[in-house]
Design brief:
The protein is an all-alpha fold. It has two helices and no strands. The termini are close together.
């Protein structure tokens, strides 16, 4: 599958979210840092991560 020439706002947001999670994990923070988020915000983070995985 070839990469698109342009990306949607959703794809950009998802990529940024996943990059932030990876950076936190690389610096020794686990996913417990997400506990400060509301359930809705946590669900949005996990959904973004799933969408990025599905695109790969």
């Amino acid at each position: 599958m070839s990469k698109p020439d342009t990306y949607t706002d959703q794809q950009i947001s998802d990529a940024a979210t996943v990059a932030l999670l990876r950076a936190l994990e690389r610096h020794g923070h686990d996913r417990a840092v997400l506990s400060g988020l509301s359930e809705r915000e946590q669900a949005a983070v996990f959904a973004a991560e799933q969408r990025v995985r599905a695109r790969r």
